[in-house]
Amino acid sequence: MTTRQVPRLLSKRAISLRRQQQSRLFSSSRRVLADHVRIVEVGPRDGLQNEKSSISPEIKTELVRRLARTGLQTIEAGSFVAPKWVPQMAASDQIMKSILGSPPPSSGAITYQWLLPNMKGLDNFYKVLDAASGSRNGGGVAAAGYPTPPSSPLPQNDTGPALNTSSSDPNAMPSSPGGSGVEAMSHNEAAVASATSEPQIHEISIFMAATESFSKKNTNCSIAESLSRFEPLMKSARDRNINVRAYISVALGCPFEGPDTDPHRVAEIAASLLELGADEISVADTTGMGTAPRTRRLLQTLKEAGIRSEDIALHFHDTFGQALINTMVGLEHGVRTFDSAVGGLGGCPYSPGATGNLATEDLVYFLHSLGADTGVDLEETARVGEWITDKIGKGNDSSVGKATMARLTKKGAHA
Fold first, then answer.
1. Which residue ranges are recorded for the region named Disordered (predicted)?
2. How many distinct structural domains can be found in the chain?
3. Domain range spanning residue 224?
4. To 10 degrees, what angle do helices 92-101 and 57-68 make?
């Protein structure tokens, strides 16, 4: 006969201690409203590059222009790769020329990033940039460092990020620059309408892999060879004061080697890239295999290797529904830059079943619910997500985007 286990009752002191711990975890949102989280919109490049149906340069350019009106400050707009390898990116030079020749209206300066694989890609990037700079006598095109986060960051590590405990709708914009979602949208539209052509910042991105198998499949070379190829490229960019962002793919799982990518290998690659002159490392969960424990272990390993959280961006895919959970882990470890794609665009061609990037709409809603400031208008972003997924005939993978548009449609019907 088995003995029934009687649940142990917590003492008043234990309950008091638990409540103190919870109060540290779930503190007032007022202390984090001023904190800024930077979102890098990768939809125009990473989100579209693997689409099988051809997408016209006009649609891609219009996507960038619409995104510029949302308040996003960093947009990955295309890539200078050989058309035979990535046909969808063949017109990136046209998109860049359009942006340089007729800057998209925005409420502030926007950084445009361009992915490239080698020196030939860099030379093509220079040609477009130099032609525009020459026609403007150097005006309107700039290179600058990544934004510095404010001095009052979200709580980190054991305290965790403070959650918004107010009763306000997290679907609305944070109270700075203030008001409800509708008021914030009107403010944003007014700013865009009155904006002059802000200086454009154009940067480059490079990409590596955290496993030998993926590196050979994706770039036809080893990790060591890839680093060697990028060394002169990064030196050239540094000599011209152009920032370099470096992606490390399959950092939390590889379609060929499984989910247990060695975090120490990721740290070694990141350290090598920073030593070569990279300004930011985007650590990418390309397949969406990442979990909270593995993400935590990876970030801890990077920290132990001397890599600062401000040098890192996190890039999640939502294959197993873990992207926002992993984002929370990143926030706990001090990361303040996250990649996403409007409408959840994207996917990995080498990973069957892998879904798109973390949707920008979902990320914005999540961050705003924590009281963080992104500068991004959620409703405007949802409109862009609906527009582009409709244009390319693809389902909208943003739950927040679809819910937001349903709410706006209902509100319009009752106006």
1. 137-195
2. 1
3. 32-413
4. 40
Give the DSSP H/E element, type plus range, for residue 388.
Answer: helix 378-391
User: Which amino acid is residue 223, in one-letter code?
Assistant: I
Q: Are 75 and 111 a contacting pair, CB within 8 Å?
A: yes
Q: Is 348 a catalytic residue?
A: yes
Which pTM was predicted? 0.80
The answer to whether the beta carbons of residues 16 and 51 sit under 8 Å apart is no
Residue 177's CATH number = 3.20.20.70
Residue-wise DSSP of 207-223: EEESSHHHHHHHHSS-H
- Tell me, yes or no, whether 393 lies in a domain: yes
Nearest alpha carbon to residue 278 among 307, 321, 244, 247: 244
Instruction: Give me 333's structure tokens.
Output: 């470890």
Bridge partners (DSSP) of residue 313 are: 282
The radius of gyration of the chain's CA atoms, rounded to the nearest angstrom, is: 22
Catalytic residue among 116, 348, 376, 384: 348
Q: Which of 198, 170, 172, 167 is nearest to 183 (CA)?
A: 172
The answer to whether residue 8 is domain-embedded is no
Contact 371, 161 (CB under 8 A): no
d(CA 75, CA 61) in angstroms, rounded, equals 12
Q: How many CB atoms lie within 10 A of CB 143?
A: 16
- pLDDT tens for each residue of 191-232: 333 344 567 899 999 999 999 999 999 889 999 999 999 999
26 domain residue, yes or no: no
Q: pLDDT tens for residues 139-174? A: 445 554 444 444 444 545 544 444 443 334 444 433
Residues 6 or more apart from 68 whose CB is under 8 A from it? 75, 104, 105, 106, 110
Residue 320 burial class via C-beta count within 10 angstroms: exposed 0-12, middle 13-18, buried 19 and up: middle
In a domain, 24, yes or no: no
Where would I find the beta strands (DSSP E) of 275-404? 280-285, 312-316, 337-340
